Model the fold of this input.
Amino acid sequence: MVGAWVQGYLSAWNGRLQLDGKPLMKSVDPNIIRLFIDRHCQDKPTKRRETATIALIDELSKPE
Done:
């Protein structure tokens, strides 16, 4: 369930980037998303799912 929520959030974020004429985030495998969110939540158990999602967006938005 969390994975679907995060994917929806990422999709909406990409849509907003596109409207603003900014480059889209890198595409990523759903399993990688799940692993990133799981690890982030284990490392920071007092933080919310949204915090992990923003951390993922930051990671995906980095130039290669």
